[in-house]
Write a structure and sequence with these properties.
Elements lengths: L1 H34 L1 H37 L3 H28 L1 H10 L4 H14 L2 H16 L3 H26 L2 H24 L15 H10 L1 H23 L7 H16 L1 H19 L3 H37 L5 H13 L3 H16 L3 H27 L1 H4 L2 H21 L23 E6 L5 H14 L4 H21 L9 E8 L2 E8 L18 H9 L2 E5 L5 E8 L4
Antiparallel strand pairs: 1-2, 2-3, 3-5, 4-5
Length: 584
């Protein structure tokens, strides 16, 4: 069930990231082909301000993943709704402020970005900022929308929203340049309207009664907004490190002897743009790791955590190998789209893109690990790895290799930086856990008292009603073998029998492929049972039967448990029951 969920979420994340990257590339091509050299220069000058809006949205998006996955893992739906409501309010306030600033100070901002005090370049930069600023609420909202839809189990809807955004952007760009002739203002406005189109698609679900998350102004809390930004700091470190690295690479390439007039910088800019699109696989692995690890960590489900991160590492290796091969094979054709002349710049960009592909496998593994550490509370370690991976190791590698191999040696920055980061992660795991990274899930860096020891937990997977009785007997035996009284053992067996039978009888589709996972933990002072299935949403904790004769089993189970909570993250029913030991 977890592997199936990972595949669904990973496909949606990768597709979303790739589509957005392609959308940006299409914007660049259309501006350069239809509006000219000054227009593409204005687009480049405006980018830092657009990245600032993206940075705030990214911080909130990462923060809501951490905060809401923590709440859902603990079965605290109200806390998840507070996080969701606060993120929506914060993104709305920040984006509206940006709209006001861009509208009032558009000329000043254009000058500050280097477009000059007047002239065509200044006017185009100013116009693009004004047009794009209209869509700031949609742009930032879309960045928050991605993790929200993932946690709600709406991967298909996420793909639909991204496709709608891309189609709208391309169509509106064409209308602007071919029909309305709106210039750079029209290009910015086209991007703005496309973001609103994506928000509309996702908003239909989020405003419906089926939505896992509920917005309310009363749930907006200042302390939660602060928590969202704190939780998203590692994502901010990533973005800052990337900006620092680009600056350092540009400075290094500018000073290399024999690089020619801007040959190195031009080649680096082109292959990095394509490489960022290829990085959709690493972005997807990191996003899924952050979301699932956060939920499973706060469920104290060691087995699910180990399976999640291990599976993501394996999938990352396969995806990295595939994408790396694509870059090696198709690098010349892709680079020629940007640099049609067969000169030194084109040759350098082709080599750079091919070498970039060598770093994708270690990057996927690094992202799976560092985002799992962030989700499990090791934020400082995640930030340290992000800084080393994003700037320190790549910059040092570029400097070292360029000393011996010149400009071409600098192209090893990404692959060498990711390999050094992976080696550093392995050493950290060995240092902290005292084990080799692959031993007993040591790569998770969990504390020793996390969850239950392996011999103090039992997991069963059921797919048919005929398996329920045997599962209940195994649960009772598990309890007795670990010192549980006969009364406790019977209660555990009853919980398993009643809840499993209810799920399979009423939730499983006839002839379908539904799954039910039952986990039992022997914890100090209590037994913890977790039921997870992929059926339609059903909350047994709050279920009120129409007749007294209905749901007798559910009411019986709720009567003997000390605590029960339910959540429905990622389209999965999660029910946690806690039964006190030696209860009379």
């Amino acid at each position: 069930m977890i592997r199936k969920l990972i595949r669904q979420m990973l496909a949606a994340q990768i597709f979303s990231a790739l589509t957005v990257s392609l959308c940006l590339l299409i914007d660049s091509v259309m501006i350069s082909r239809f509006l000219g050299e000054n227009a593409i220069a204005a687009y480049g000058l405006a980018n830092p301000l657009l990245l600032a809006i993206g940075a705030i949205g990214t911080l909130l998006g990462a923060g809501i993943q951490v905060v809401c996955s923590k709440a859902l893992g603990r079965g605290n739906q109200e806390e998840a709704n507070i996080g969701y409501s606060s993120a929506i309010a914060a993104s709305g306030a920040a984006s509206l402020l940006f709209v006001a600033v861009a509208a009032v100070f558009c000329s000043f901002l254009a000058r500050a970005l280097g477009a000059g005090a007047s002239g065509p370049l200044h006017d185009m930069t100013r116009d693009y900022l004004v047009g794009f600023s209209i869509g700031a609420p949609g742009s930032m909202g879309a960045l928050v929308l991605v993790p929200v839809l993932q946690m709600a189990g709406q991967s298909g809807l996420l793909i639909a929203a991204v496709l709608t955004m891309t189609a709208a952007d391309v169509a509106l760009d064409l209308l602007n340049v071919l029909v309305f002739h709106g210039g750079m203002f029209g290009m910015g406005l086209a991007s703005a309207l496309s973001y609103y189109a994506a928000m509309l698609v996702g908003g239909i679900y989020l405003l419906s009664k089926k939505s896992v998350f509920r917005f309310s102004r009363k749930r907006v809390k200042i302390r939660m907004i602060a928590d969202l930004f704190r939780s998203g700091v590692p994502a901010g470190v990533n973005m800052i490190a990337s900006l620092v690295l680009v600056y350092l690479m540009n400075q290094l390439l500018r000073r290399l002897p024999g690089a020619g007039a801007g040959v190195g910088i031009a080649a680096f800019t082109v292959f990095l743009s394509v490489g960022n699109a290829a990085n959709c696989i690493t972005t997807g692995v990191g996003g899924v790791s952050l979301t699932l690890s956060g939920i499973f960590f706060h469920e104290e489900d060691r087995t699910a955590l180990k399976q999640t991160v291990g599976t993501l590492c394996r999938y990352g290796m396969v995806l990295g190998l595939f994408m790396g091969a694509v870059l090696v094979i198709f690098a010349p054709a892709v680079i020629r789209l940007f640099l049609p002349e067969a000169d030194r710049t084109q040759a350098a960009a082709i080599l750079g893109l091919r070498l970039f592909g060598a770093g994708l496998i270690p990057c996927c593994i690094n992202n799976a690990l560092k985002y799992a550490w962030q989700a499990s509370g090791r934020t400082g370690l995640s930030e340290l790895v992000s800084a080393a991976e994003g700037a320190l190791f790549p910059a040092l590698s570029a400097f070292a290799f360029s000393r011996f191999l010149g400009m071409e040696g600098a192209w090893l920055y990404f692959a060498a930086g990711e390999i050094l980061t992976l080696l550093a992660c392995g050493l950290l795991i060995r240092r902290i856990s005292g084990k080799r990274p692959w031993e007993d899930g040591a790569f998770l860096l969990l504390r020793k008292d996390f969850g239950a020891a392996e011999n103090q937990s039992m997991e069963m997977n059921l797919s048919e009603i005929s398996e329920v009785t045997a599962a209940a007997e195994k649960a009772g035996s598990f309890c007795r073998e670990r010192g549980g009284s006969e009364q406790e053992s019977n209660r555990i067996a009853l919980c398993v029998e009643e809840m499993a039978a209810n799920v399979i009888s009423h939730g499983f589709a006839e002839g379908g492929t539904n799954h039910l996972s039952v986990l039992i933990l022997n914890k100090p002072g209590q037994w913890v049972l977790r039921f997870r299935d992929d059926c339609a949403a059903f909350d047994p904790v709050r279920y009120v039967p129409q007749e007294k004769e209905q749901a007798i089993g559910i009411r019986l189970v709720m009567g003997i448990t000390e605590e029960a909570y339910y959540s429905y993250p990622m389209g999965l029913n999660n029910l946690v029951l806690k039964v006190r030991k030696n209860r009379e």
